[in-house]
Amino acid sequence: MIRAFKIELQAQMNTWILPAIILVLVLFSSISIFTGVYPNQEIFIASICGDTMVLLMAGAMYVGISTISDYSNGFIKHYLVSGVKRVDIIIGKYLSFILGCILILFLYPILSYLLSYFSFGGDQFFSYLLQLLSNIFMIAPFYIMMYTLFFALAILIRKEAIVVGVNIALSVALAIFPQRFLADLEILKYTPTIQIQMLCQNLDFDTTYLVLLLLGTLFCIFILYIVIQLFKRIEF
């Protein structure tokens, strides 16, 4: 597993995909910053991590481009011929993918915040930065839950264009559907996207957060188990 993880990590770090996604995200956020979309620093900090559609679509594109390429370039067959177990391949790919997503979750808001400081100024640079980091740490597990689902679909579909399309559509659904029907279905407030928005607006949390965190962890383990079992049946 460690061997597969190292190979996957090195392959992903040596490509343009991750820095390109982060650069595009920061570019668009800088346009919003300097055109006055965010009236003040507080609203910017609450919005930059709470804009779930942007970060979900980034994860959808990242998994579609980075993970599926191993099927077309023959890396999967190379792993198998080299004696790497299929379980290790999946876990290695998953860990390297999640690490890349974590880099997006941290670098995109932080770099955007540094740019926003030139626009808003003020003397509370470190206090706002601490608040932003607190937001990221709190909401990261919920993003990882949804990224895990994207990863599972990518492994099972195995067609880059279809994977990107399906995961982007799923990103839009996850971001819009709970918000649209929240007033009618109160249970939707426990969905990841709504929890992310609530946490970004107010960092106070109770046992509900911990329960959802536990359920999310079990969800990720279950999804990975299903993916591993199905991956064992795929012929290369």
TrEMBL record:
TM regions (residue ranges): 16-37, 43-65, 94-116, 136-157, 164-182, 209-231
Domain of life according to the entry: Bacteria
Keywords annotated in UniProt: Membrane, Transmembrane, Transmembrane helix
Name of this chain's protein: Uncharacterized protein
Organism: Thomasclavelia spiroformis
